[in-house]
């Protein structure tokens, strides 16, 4: 009897704790709306032109040799692929990194202020072999360059 | 996330400052399955990173879950002198955030 009672109490207690954590979870989700600047549509787009239109206002890019992409030819681990996008162009407003074969192609976008140089480097995940595209917006126009990366082990599945 | 979730190195050379930062974050895409339960692991990734030099924003990055776990970011900007402050702040999709300030070396 007494153990059973304790069990009841314990169950009640854990249920209440569960409710509290749900409430806390809901509260934690709220600040998401504060990040209004985060381009949700661009990061949900499944195609590259859609993502670019949502992000930079246009899906048309011009291939440029002024953009350099540094990425490995063969990535052994798709979960960590070092990517550097560098451009010598003047008046760069923003830069984006796209992995064409990923379920969500747009990986990162960087908006640069006046003193920032056209250089960003980060590490990305790649689901499978595909092109890494660097997009640079300068003077209202979009320029891009791409580089194929062969992925041995994908970094998006589990 | 603890406050010391970011490591920053900033160096000035020939009037160009290079900043390298390493953040501690799981960066879950939301598309990955837990191998034991077979359930999807909820998305948890950094959405916005703001980098400031002496209080002025130099770079704002918007990320998807496609950036690797424990993200690394490096960028360069003109100007900057020894002792200037570089501040990096991140916000994730669950409302978490982290911030760190470092001095340029």
Automatic annotation (TrEMBL), chain B:
Coiled coil: none annotated. Residues 8-102 form the Sulphur oxidation protein SoxZ domain. InterPro entries: Ig-like_fold, Ig_E-set, SoxZ, SoxZ_dom. Pfam families: SoxZ. This is Thiosulfate oxidation carrier complex protein SoxZ. It comes from endosymbiont of Escarpia spicata.
């Amino acid at each position: 009897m007494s153990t059973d009672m304790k069990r009841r109490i314990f169950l009640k207690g854990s249920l209440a704790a569960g409710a509290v954590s749900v409430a806390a979870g809901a509260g934690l989700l709220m600040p998401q709306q504060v990040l209004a600047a985060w381009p949700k549509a661009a990061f949900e787009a499944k195609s590259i032109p859609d993502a670019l239109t949502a992000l930079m206002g246009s899906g048309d890019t011009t291939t440029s040799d002024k953009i350099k992409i540094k990425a490995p030819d063969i990535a052994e681990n798709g979960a960590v692929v070092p990517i550097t996008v560098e451009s010598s162009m003047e008046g760069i407003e923003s830069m984006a990194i796209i992995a064409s074969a990923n379920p969500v192609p747009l990986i990162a976008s960087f908006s640069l202020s006046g003193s920032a140089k056209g250089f960003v480097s980060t590490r990305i995940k790649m689901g499978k072999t595909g092109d890494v595209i660097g997009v640079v917006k300068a003077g209202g126009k979009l320029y891009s360059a791409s580089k194929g990366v062969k992925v041995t082990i994908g970094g998006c599945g589990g | 996330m603890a406050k010391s979730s970011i490591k920053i190195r900033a160096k000035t050379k020939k009037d160009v400052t290079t900043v390298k930062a390493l953040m501690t974050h799981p960066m879950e895409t939301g598309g990955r399955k837990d191998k034991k339960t077979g359930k999807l692991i909820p998305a948890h990734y950094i959405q916005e990173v703001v980098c400031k030099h002496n209080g002025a924003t130099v770079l704002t990055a918007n990320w998807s879950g496609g950036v690797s776990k424990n993200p690394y970011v490096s960028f360069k900007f003109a100007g900057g002198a020894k002792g200037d402050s570089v501040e990096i702040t991140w916000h994730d999709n669950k409302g978490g955030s982290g911030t760190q300030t470092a001095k340029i070396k």
